[in-house]
Task: inverse folding
């Protein structure tokens, strides 16, 4: 089984989250994305504490695609410093993990 990751990012609105997620799926950098609107984020930014509504996006990918995904996410993301953190998937349903690999395979494979 390929080592897989769940990658977290946040966006200001659902439209930009969907635009970026769709591009990453089309480019086969992620197999899928779950958009979770309604998150409330409290964080420090430019010496102020911010309190904002955001959309959390959970993206599934392979560890081998991490560098390319990170680079492309920074190109597409509207934030100056987008959140992009990943956690390893320790285990997954075999059929789901097979699907994930197939969804990320190059088109000519």
Result:
């Amino acid at each position: 089984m390929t080592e897989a990751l769940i990658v977290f990012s946040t966006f200001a609105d659902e439209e930009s989250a969907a635009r970026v997620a769709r591009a990453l799926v089309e480019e086969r950098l992620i197999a899928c994305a779950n958009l979770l609107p309604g998150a409330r984020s409290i964080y420090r930014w430019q010496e102020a504490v911010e309190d904002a509504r955001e959309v959390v996006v959970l993206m599934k990918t392979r560890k081998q695609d991490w560098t390319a995904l990170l680079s492309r996410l920074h190109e597409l993301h509207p934030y100056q410093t987008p959140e992009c953190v990943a956690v390893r998937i320790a285990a997954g349903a075999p059929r789901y993990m097979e699907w994930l690999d197939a969804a990320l395979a190059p088109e000519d494979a």
